[in-house]
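Chain A, query sequence.
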Amino acid sequence: MTANILDGKALSQAILGQLKQKIEQLPASASRPKLVIVQVLGDEASSIYVKHKLKAAQDVGIEAQHLTFPNDISQKALHEAIDKLNQDAAVHGILLQLPLPIQLQAESLLSVINPAKDVDGLTPFNQGCLMQKQPRLLPCTPAGIIRLLKYYAIPLLGQEVVILNASALVGRPLAMLLLAEGATVTLCNSKTRNLQSQVQRADILVSATGKPHVIPSEWLRKGVVAVDVGVHRVADKHLVGDLYYDTASQVASWITPVPGGVGPMTVAMLMENVWQAYLQS
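Chain A, predicted structure.
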């Protein structure tokens, strides 16, 4: 058996195509949705991700501005820059590109962003709304995973879902979305004991460990739906995920490729969030 592909690239292109049509149908006199990406320079991977986001925005007709700051910027200066964007009525979405240099406190800076412009869904307000089952702007990667699973009619109700990540960016918000769908969810972290036994229980496995090829295919349950959030550039420069794709695809019933799985969905959900923020402005 070879796994079916959860093709995030194809689905994201369809979503972005629909969004482009909506923006093109706006009256000529209307403003256009505007996204501002705030980046503190110094992280090479972040710069690559920003390029993908800027290109997607351009493709669908969202005005995108890229604000860059030196990696020795102070907390106060970045706080003020974000607050200035909050006050700008022409800006509908603000994205603070993570990770940040060690001298900056990400959680504090995220809390500065106006929740109505928080297109990454990471402010305490938006995360709290999700916790209370009143979601507004959702974190992009979890939203993309749910959209991908639903598009391919993967059952969620009553399923055992194991998430190898407990961050506010992926694991925790994804758990909330899955609980709302009636799934049983286990969150694992770096301190989880006997990780193998947790992985082996999963009907659906979501892996975002931050480490390449960390989950042996022998751990996977036959027929598992394998969602690999990891994107790692290895020695020969090609991209791999947390799983061993070639062998995992012989065990799983469905699997996300790397690249072309979760990554494109994250970008598509970001563009949808900018659109929603624009409509509600």
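The chain has two domains: 30-116, 140-263. Residues 81 and 269 are 25 Å apart (CA to CA).
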